[in-house]
Specification:
The structure is a homodimer. Chain A is an alpha/beta fold and about 450 residues long. Chain A has a domain of about 230 residues: Amidase signature (AS) enzymes. Chain A is built from 14 helices and 13 strands. The first copy, chain A, has an 11-stranded mixed sheet with strand order 1-3-2-4-6-5-12-13-9-7-8, sandwiched between helices. Chain A has a two-stranded antiparallel sheet with strand order 10-11. The two termini of chain A are about 20 Å apart. At the A-B interface, helix 9 and helix 11 of A face helix 9 and helix 11 of B.
């Protein structure tokens, strides 16, 4: 899908050399947004507004006043990030109570660097689902095959990047919502460690699980974007000990642990792609099982539903009819959980962290991003590895582990299925070792590409 | 009550100079324990065992091998600290599931320093109450007047120190359980900042509110004891960033804020004693109100009941009949709280912390420890400041604020009521500024004593 357009890193170089202008980039992005309108990736996009931003960037650059290497580059923003120039709806008819007219911290950081805030992307309603089939703007479609879903909840961001409309987009991730559409659409997606990146101005789903993160066309692009996410933001207390992103970290031959076994099943074609990639990536590989996966998953669900219900309580009381039936049912169910069970779930989190840390001297844990390729739109169930699982639970099948543990995670594309759909690998790093994780992913990505 | 015995600091000096021996100290403590048996301060105490520890300490000291300045000094331990040489019952017939034969970290620290672990002290059943009237060993009595309660839940430790049986004792504090008996018995009690001191091996009541702390005969004694409480203990994850206690901190004329107003009422005699002490303590005093006290109190209660119910669930299922009816009722009630309400309570905690921090440039916040003097045994209700409050809620009236905020707190005696009962002042410090708080308390204590 990327044949006509550049990665973010290539756009940075082309702008710097003068080979292209921001106005060219943004007009081409607008053209492609029209051409791929059927993907339903964008829910708000003002051509005149983004072109004026691009022209201002071109003037700055011509005068030697570029604000950063990103000055003039279009970046799309998931519709749960507050933006001063677009409405924010979380793709729900129950409109948020948060004030309009302000930027989320990550958006403000990028805007200060000159990035063109290129419209708002479609998402699963309130980020409360992983298929992007429930949205007040309708579902998104996968650029690799419009009969297939993008996954979600950052599905519009995934489609926009995979279709080459923009090279990078912002997402948020509570149980995989950055990595799932990155995996299903064959691009790169990064979820920082919990508390490393500011959520200020991003409508929450579950505040002890939520992380914002970038989706991009190439691995190096992620490294250009993470400095705008990471570090202390006084407006997000969870970041009070966050270190800024250090782009200078490098690693040697990585030690990987491939997680497999009960609760971590995947389809034969996905497993074959992962095995093949592991054999070609020049790393030390061991295999390990996880115990108590079902108990950990229940803890993740309990925390998710309870926190979401607590956050939504005032809006649900005011405008229950604004929510889709399925989201409203989740929110009502979350109210029924007992406090003692929530506390139990919070304790189980600690058990997961200890089990993962105690697996040994690993640099990254490996799983597929998804157990299957992107499902067909409308399919309610998926079958893989002896399991029959709802499409929703198939999407989060592996990804929630990273949120419950709070570890940094990345999804990288590793190949295509026989019917032309992307297959991706997820890597999990140690808490707050986001830089090391990105470097390990870079090692693997370079080895896989060199091998072609 | 302290006429015949020394403070811990005086015992340290007398042992060092050779004026007394550990055997003398311990035998005198055993004599006084017999003499004050009616106070019901101890629930386990083995004379031969503590004398043998004292004799070993005397041998070490004679050979120049004293383990620390505390070597050979008897220290009493609340019955919810695990101890390798005594059973641990939390004064309940529902016996804990925790393993016997091990020391809590604080006990182990003191034992390694040569302290004589001088028996286990009576407490409110499972620390789930502040009167010490509910205990499988019967209630404790106040050394100043046996018709009066000690307050709790560390009531046995308070009585043992106030009666001069020992100069120091260990307590735990979830809503005032160190400070309440210290206040009611006219001694000193310190609750460290949340996460500063290890709770490992102390039976929990509410793990996000609990702190262990010392009760002692004099303010300097507290400074000798806090190094054994504070610092990282890998067995208590809440201490992972805890600094060791730095005894070298000093302060100048302190800036105090006296908290008063709605929700912070107290009896006329207690208020007069506080006003008198503030006028004599050579500090800068301002007065401030707190808003939303009732909402903060509800948050403290919700967290307390919910966490206690979660911790007790396995034992309650196994042996409900072992609990007193009132404790069992608390535990059953805690199960009924919804998760969303618990989350709301956790958010309200943050509001309290911000309100206290935002009061300005204070070195300590001042309240009475108790709104009244020690109540008569058997009284169900107390009246003060236009309020009619249960005796239980009268005991925690001010103290829970320190636990909900997680701030360090100390109770110091400031005088006696006309009928000969102690009145005490509570000081709250900034989070993790335990040393500064102790230094401020020392400043006030010295000025009040110099004034006599």
């Amino acid at each position: 899908m990327q044949t006509e357009t550049e990665t973010l890193t290539q756009q940075i170089a082309a702008l710097r050399s003068g080979a292209i202008s921001s106005t060219f980039l943004v007009e081409r992005a607008l053209d492609r947004a029209v051409r791929f309108k059927a993907l339903n990736a964008f829910v708000a996009l003002e051509p005149a507004h983004v072109i004026s931003q691009a022209k201002a960037a071109d003037v700055r650059r011509a005068e030697g006043r570029a604000l950063s290497v990103l000055d003039g580059i279009p970046i799309a923003v998931k519709d749960n990030y507050l933006t001063q120039d677009y409405p924010t709806t979380a793709c729900s008819r129950a409109l948020p109570l948060e004030p309009a007219g302000m930027d989320a911290t990550v958006v403000a950081n990028l805007r200060s660097a000159g990035a063109v805030i290129f419209g708002k992307t479609n998402m699963h309603e309130w980020a409360y689902g992983a298929t992007n089939s429930t949205s007040s703007f309708g579902p998104t479609r996968n650029p690799h095959n419009p009969d297939r879903i993008t996954g979600g909840s950052s599905g519009g961001s995934g489609a926009a990047v995979a279709a080459g409309i923009v090279a990078a987009a912002l997402g948020s991730d509570t149980g995989g919502s950055v990595r799932i559409p990155a995996g299903a659409c064959g691009i790169y997606g990064f979820k920082p460690s919990y508390g490393r990146a500011s959520r200020h101005g991003i409508l929450p789903l579950s505040w002890s699980l939520d992380a914002p993160g970038p989706l991009a066309a190439a691995l190096d692009d992620i490294g250009h974007l993470l400095p705008f996410f990471c570090g202390v933001d006084p407006k997000d207390p969870a970041t009070r000990r966050a270190m800024p992103f250090d782009g200078a970290v490098s690693v040697g031959r990585p030690r990987l642990i491939h997680l497999a076994g009960e609760g971590l099943e995947r389809s034969a074609e996905v497993d074959a792609a992962i095995q093949s990639a592991l054999s070609r990536c020049n790393a030390d590989i061991t295999v390990a099982a996880l115990t108590n996966v079902a108990s950990y998953f229940a803890a993740w669900e309990a925390i998710l539903h309870c926190e979401a219900s607590a956050y939504h309580a005032p809006l649900l009381e005011r405008n229950a009819a604004g929510y889709s039936a399925v989201t409203r049912a989740h929110l009502e169910a979350g109210k029924l959980l007992a406090g003692v069970d929530l506390l139990k779930a919070q304790q189980i989190r600690g058990d997961l962290v200890r089990q993962l840390v105690d697996l040994g001297n690993w640099d990254a844990l490996v799983l597929p991003t998804l157990p299957i390729v992107a499902p067909r739109a409308g399919e309610e169930w998926q079958e893989f590895g002896g399991r029959r699982v709802t499409t929703q639970d198939s999407m989060t099948w592996f990804c929630w582990i990273g949120n419950l543990a709070g570890f940094p995670c990345i999804s990288i594309p590793i190949g295509m299925s026989p019917d032309g759909l992307p297959i991706s690998m997820m890597l999990m790093g140690r808490p707050n070792a986001d830089e090391q994780l990105l470097a390990v992913a870079g090692w693997i990505d370079r080895n896989l590409r060199a091998d072609h």
